Amino acid sequence: MKIVAVAGSIVGSKTKIAMMKVVEMLENKYPKHEVTLLDLTDYKLEFSDGRNYFEYEGDTKYVTETIMAADAIIIGTPTFQASIPATLKNIFDLLPVNAFRDKVVSSVVTAGTSKHYLMVEQQLKPILAYMKAHIVPTYVFIEEKDFLRKEIVNDDILFRLDRLVEDTMLTVEAFEIIRAKKDEEYDF
């Protein structure tokens, strides 16, 4: 199984720290699966101009094709102006409408204060639903106060990240069973 963790911003460090922790948890609990961290600070991405994702070149092609090949995607995003950052929105714009069909997608969100906890419900989940994702209903919201010296210091956050990883993997397994049963209905 291919799992992609996306650190969806090119500024700041908290989202990347959270996503590195998610990758560590995935690699420790599910060592047989292929885990890839796409930290958008490491890539030079073109702005979406309406082409198919496979027509781009370089980093843009690599990032979009890696996401399209994934079975599960864990999106990490900071909260900017009560919404997702433009870099993450550009990723969604680069992908086709049905990009997340048959993929499980979960979310980790960082923000300066608790005032933005509904951003996922109002901004991110509608985009993911439109793109046909199987959305893990729970998400992890991490505030500024949960970090100290570039580490997550809140044990509850670490527990919730671990649970999100587990919920994501269980959801993938459940949908694999559902898909197999549907495939059995066909006689070819």
Topology:
Layout: E1 2-7, H1 14-29, E2 34-39, H2 58-69, E3 72-78, H3 86-94, E4 104-111, H4 119-130, E5 134-135, E6 140-143, E7 147-148, E8 151-152, H5 155-184
Parallel strand pairs: 1-2, 1-3, 3-4, 4-5, 4-6
Antiparallel strand pairs: 7-8
Helix pairs in contact: 1-5
Keywords: Flavoprotein, FMN, Oxidoreductase
Pfam family, one: FMN_red
Domain NADPH-dependent FMN reductase-like: 1-144
Concise synopsis of the structure shown:
With 188 residues, the chain is α/β, with parallel strands linked by helices. It is 42% helix and 20% strand.
Please give a handful of descriptors for the protein shown.
20% strand, two-stranded antiparallel sheet, 188 residues, globular, single chain, Rossmann fold, alpha/beta, 6-stranded parallel beta sheet, 8 strands
What does this 3D model show about the protein?
By secondary structure, the chain is an alpha/beta fold. It has one domain (2-184): Flavodoxin domain (Rossmann fold), CATH 3.40.50.360. 42% of the residues lie in helices and 20% in strands. It has five helices and eight strands, in the order βαβαβαβαββββα. The strands form two sheets. Strands 1, 2, 3, 4, 5 and 6 form a six-stranded parallel β-sheet that branches. The longest helix has 30 residues, at 155-184. The protein is globular and about 55 Å long. The two termini are 25 Å apart. The model has no long low-confidence stretch (mean pLDDT 96).
